[in-house]
Write a structure and sequence with these properties.
Layout lengths: L2 E4 L9 E7 L6 E2 L4 E6 L4 E5 L4 E6 L5 E4 L3 E6 L17 E2 L8 H9 L18 H10 L21 H16 L12 H18 L5 H15 L5 E4 L2 E4 L11
Antiparallel strand pairs: 1-8, 2-4, 2-7, 3-6, 4-5, 6-8, 7-9, 10-11
Helix pairs in contact: 1-2
Length: 254
C-alpha cells in the first residue's frame, strides 16, 4: 500500500509550509533517508528526506504553494501501484503564491552563482515559474542569458518578502512598539557557566539531542532574572504598562 507523504510540523508554532522544490520527479525511485523536498517554514527552509524507500508515484504539493500541516504532498510506493485521486485544490487552505517571484529561490541562487539572468530563462514550473532544472538546462545548453550590467541608479525597488522575512519583520516591528529597547554591555566572568556546561553537556545531549551551548545558559539565566524581577517583564500595551504572567523570550539570529 502506498505511503502518504504529508506536510510535517517542523516547529512548535508551524501551521503551514511552502513547497520550495521537489528533488525527485514522479516515477523516480527513492531510498529511505534520501533528500525528497525542500519546504519553507516561517523561520527557515528545511530539506526533508523520504521516510520510506520506493517510487515517487505522485506529487500533489505544487512548488510555491502553501499547505497546512497534515496535508498530503505525495505518495510513495511500489512501481505501478495506484493512488487515490487528490483534488487540485485541497480543502485545507492551499494558497498559491501566484503574486510571488517568478523564479524559485533555489533557481535564483544557481543563476546568481553563474551570472545568469534567470528572468530570461524559459520556465517550465507552475504558472511558468523558473525552476532550478530550467536554469541548469540553460547552463548545460549554453543558452543561458548573462546578466546585463546595470548602469542606472534606480530611485528605489520594491522587493516582495518571503515567508521567513515577512514573519521576522512583523514580529521585530511589533516588539519595538511594545517593549522599549535599551542596550547594556558589561564584562562578566563566564568560568562558572563554562564549568557547568562541560559538566552537563553529555546529559543534555542525550536528553535533548543537541549540544549545550552558552546561549542556552544565558537564556535560562535571563528567564530566571525576569521571574525574580517582574517589573522587567513588562510591555507597553494600549497606553499602559502590562506586567506579564509568563516569561517568553525571542531570539533573532543574523
Amino acid at each position: 500500500m502506498a505511503t502518504q507523504f504529508k506536510m510535517a510540523a517542523m516547529g512548535h508554532t508551524m501551521e503551514t509550509g511552502r513547497v520550495v522544490e521537489w528533488h525527485i520527479s514522479e516515477g523516480e525511485s527513492i531510498d529511505e533517508g534520501q533528500l525528497l523536498i525542500s519546504i519553507e517554514t516561517d523561520k527557515t527552509v528545511v530539506d526533508v528526506n523520504s521516510p520510506v524507500s520506493g517510487v515517487l508515484l505522485k506529487t500533489v504539493g505544487q512548488v510555491d504553494a502553501e499547505y497546512d500541516v497534515g496535508d498530503v504532498l505525495a505518495w510513495i510506493g511500489d512501481a505501478g501501484e495506484t493512488v487515490p485521486d487528490q483534488p487540485v485544490e485541497p480543502d485545507s487552505k492551499k494558497r498559491s503564491v501566484a503574486a510571488g517571484p517568478r523564479v524559485t529561490p533555489v533557481a535564483q541562487r544557481l543563476a546568481d552563482r553563474h551570472g545568469i539572468n534567470a528572468d530570461a530563462v524559459q520556465g517550465t514550473g507552475p504558472d511558468g515559474r523558473v525552476t532550478k532544472e530550467d536554469v541548469q538546462r540553460a547552463i548545460d545548453d549554453g543558452t543561458a542569458p548573462a546578466k546585463a550590467e546595470d548602469t542606472s541608479v534606480p530611485a528605489g525597488e520594491v522587493v516582495p518578502l518571503s515567508g521567513i522575512r515577512r514573519i521576522t519583520a512583523e514580529r521585530l516591528s511589533a516588539n519595538w512598539g511594545v517593549a522599549p529597547h535599551v542596550s547594556e554591555g558589561i564584562e562578566v566572568d563566564f568560568s562558572q557557566f563554562e564549568s557547568y556546561r562541560v559538566e552537563h553537556e553529555a546529559d543534555w545531549l542525550e536528553k535533548w539531542g543537541t549540544p549545550l551551548g552558552p546561549n542556552d545558559l544565558i537564556l535560562s539565566a535571563t528567564a530566571q532574572t525576569l521571574k525574580d524581577h517582574p517589573d522587567l517583564n513588562t510591555g507597553f500595551v494600549d497606553g499602559a504598562i502590562c506586567r506579564y504572567n509568563e516569561v517568553n523570550l525571542g531570539v533573532a539570529i543574523d
